[in-house]
Amino acid sequence: MILSLLFLRSDQLLVGDRILAIENLYKRESNLEGVRLTKTVNGPWIRMEIEYELPDLPPAGCTVKHMLVDLETRGDGAGLVTRGGWSRLPSHIRPLTVMRVRENSMAEL
């Protein structure tokens, strides 16, 4: 993920972020299991650990940053579309990545 100014990031969820854990359960399962976890969470928050890349200045390489995100839950979900996850075929295993953040959802606010 390349951003022109680091402070614009503001520790918000963005497209391209990789989800490492949902509710302290590290993602080795499929994307479907992650969706189930976000829908069945008990309480008003979903805790997610994500990582994203920070570019060097000038952009010659990147560093990875980890953070925890607590999202308030509503009846319409957290507002995330994710892709990736575990597969039986090693060549198909991909990081669980945020592909879309729904406008005006808890993930965007």
Distance between the termini: 20 Å
Oligomer: single chain
| Helix and strand composition category | mainly beta
Helix content: under 10%
Structure description:
8% of the residues lie in helices and 39% in strands. The two termini are 20 Å apart. It has one helix at 31-39, and strands spanning 18-22, 25-26, 45-55, 62-72, 80-85, 94-101. The protein has one domain (6-101): Pdz3 Domain. The protein has 109 residues and is mainly β. The protein is globular, with a radius of gyration of 14 Å. It is built from one helix and six strands.
SSE blueprint and pairings:
Blueprint: E1 18-22, E2 25-26, H1 31-39, E3 45-55, E4 62-72, E5 80-85, E6 94-101
Antiparallel strand pairs: 1-2, 1-3, 1-6, 3-4, 5-6
Could you write a compact summary of the structure shown?
The chain has one helix at 31-39, and strands at 18-22, 25-26, 45-55, 62-72, 80-85, 94-101. It has 109 residues and is mainly β.
Task: Name the descriptors.
109 residues; mainly beta; 6-stranded antiparallel beta sheet; 6 strands; 8% helix; globular
